[in-house]
């Protein structure tokens, strides 16, 4: 039996704080080819998740915040923010499920957040997601400025520097 307890989330948070990408995950599925991918993620406020979508028709994603708060951003094809949804472990909206082919990313405005992500597998790194051309890659020197833009972006505004 696999337990989801405070120790697991505490350990995950420490790993996220110490990681270069400022986030960490703990997989409950055994292998990348598992048909159901279940992972717990801890993310810090300075972690950048590049806007992306999953092109395969079975690649929906389910998110449930367990601790903290994050904003889930949904974009159109040109990078205009369509929706900004606050997911809060203590709030009225704690999770969501998105369909495939939906441009999205997450931002943490302060502190850290731990959440559960569930999606259909298998996970194949080279076709799992398509990144937005209107967003910088993770290694870009403009990422801190772009992340600041994402944290303030409101529906109708374009996610471009």
Could you name the ranges where pLDDT drops below 50 across 5 or more consecutive residues? none
According to CATH, what is the class? Answer: Mainly Beta
Number of strands: 10
Specify the number of helices.
2
Briefly note the structural class of the backbone: mainly beta
Instruction: Indicate how many domains the architecture comprises.
Output: 1
Describe the sheet with the most strands: 5 strands, antiparallel
Topology as a string of helices (H) and strands (E)? HEEEEEEEEEEH
Give helix % range: 10-25%
Molecular shape: globular
CATH architecture: Sandwich
Taken as a percent bin, the fraction of beta residues is 35-45%
**Rg (C-alpha, Å):** 15 Å
Question: What is the CATH homology-level superfamily?
Answer: Jelly Rolls
Oligomerization state: single chain
Q: Write out the strand line-up for the largest beta sheet, numbering strands in chain order.
A: 1-2-9-4-7
Q: Tell me, rounded to a whole number, the average pLDDT.
A: 95
Distance between the termini: 47 Å
Q: What is the CATH third-level topology name?
A: Jelly Rolls
């Amino acid at each position: 039996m696999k337990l989801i307890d405070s120790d697991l989330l505490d350990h995950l948070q420490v790993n996220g704080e110490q990681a270069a990408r400022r986030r960490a995950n703990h997989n409950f599925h055994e292998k990348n080819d598992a048909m159901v991918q279940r992972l717990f993620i801890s993310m810090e406020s300075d972690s950048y998740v590049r806007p992306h979508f999953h092109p395969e028709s079975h690649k929906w994603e389910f998110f449930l915040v367990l601790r903290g708060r994050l904003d889930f951003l949904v974009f159109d094809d040109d990078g205009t923010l369509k929706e900004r949804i606050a997911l809060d472990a203590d709030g009225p909206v704690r999770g969501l499920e998105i369909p495939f082919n939906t441009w999205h990313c997450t931002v943490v405005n302060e502190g850290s957040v731990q959440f559960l992500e569930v999606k259909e597998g298998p996970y194949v790194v080279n076709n799992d997601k398509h990144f937005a051309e209107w967003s910088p890659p993770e290694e870009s020197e403009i990422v801190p400025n772009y992340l600041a833009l994402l944290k303030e972006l409101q529906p109708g505004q374009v996610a471009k520097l």
